Amino acid sequence: MHTPAAYRFSMLCPFSTLRFAVLLGALALTGCGGDNSTTSNPDGSVTQKDAATDHDAAQDAGTDASELPSCGFAWEDTIAASITLSADDNRVLYVNGTLVDDTTYGWNQPSTYQIELFRHPTRENVIAVKGVNLYQQGGYDRGVVVGLVTDADAGVSFELVSDASWLIATDEATDWYKNDFDDASWVAATAQTANGTGPWGTIANISTNASWLWSYDSATANSKPDAETIYLRRAFYIDESGAVSADSANCK
């Protein structure tokens, strides 16, 4: 006896007759259990799908940088700023991995430089200073003080000064002044005393919010060497609003 195709299929996959016509197409593709873990190929073969691979692909798509919003700035955009520093006794300044000045100056000879900072909110800026002490005496006798301000026409306005947010090391590491240097092992600098106090008085063009930095408080140290060198780093980003941030923005 000839059995209609629809009846033969319904015996394999029992469904309500009212829903059968609607579901027939879907069942033909997925099978009775509604399993979508396989796909039919044009040649009639069946391929098993990897659920874990599909999940990983979805996860990757969710974190794809192409889906991030625009930061609103070109990668090469910069802003102008000036930086002033002094050190007791000598200093060397780097900005974003580039040597700015290694001339020998006295602590009472602060120097000011025009610099360019990266504006893109995901592009890190690094100010790096090598400080050198040559002589030992009582009280505060060594330190580095820094003040940075944006230019009036920079489009943003902020001040960055030497304080305990700077990182310090006493051993020179290869490329310590570069942006991609790993400073995870460095520690917070000691803010000894504010600009305007101590034996140095007020260093011109540096805010009194700035502190003289070293690896310890030289005024209270039980002993200290004559010659001593420190290495300082201050890494930061400029966020979308133009403020200094410790973190990269979540944009592209």
Poorly predicted runs of 5 or more residues: 1-39, 46-63
Shape: globular
Largest sheet, strands/sense/barrel: 7 strands, antiparallel
Helix content: 10-25%
Structural class: alpha+beta
CATH class annotation of the largest domain: Mainly Beta
Count the helices. How many? Answer: 3
Fourth-tier CATH superfamily name of the largest domain: Galactose-binding domain-like
Strand content: 25-35%
The number of E-state strands comes to 15
Distance between the termini: 69 Å
Order of helices and strands: HHEEHEEEEEEEEEEEEE
The CATH topology label of the largest domain is: Jelly Rolls
**Average of pLDDT:** 83
CATH architecture type of the largest domain: Sandwich
How many structural domains can be distinguished in the coordinates?
A: 2
Q: In angstroms, what is the radius of gyration?
A: 33 Å
Structure characterization notes:
With 252 residues, this protein is an alpha+beta fold. The chain has 2 domains: 63 residues, no CATH class; 168 residues, Galactose-binding domain-like (Jelly Rolls), CATH 2.60.120. It is built from 3 helices and 15 strands. The longest helix is centred in the N-terminal third of the chain and has 14 residues.
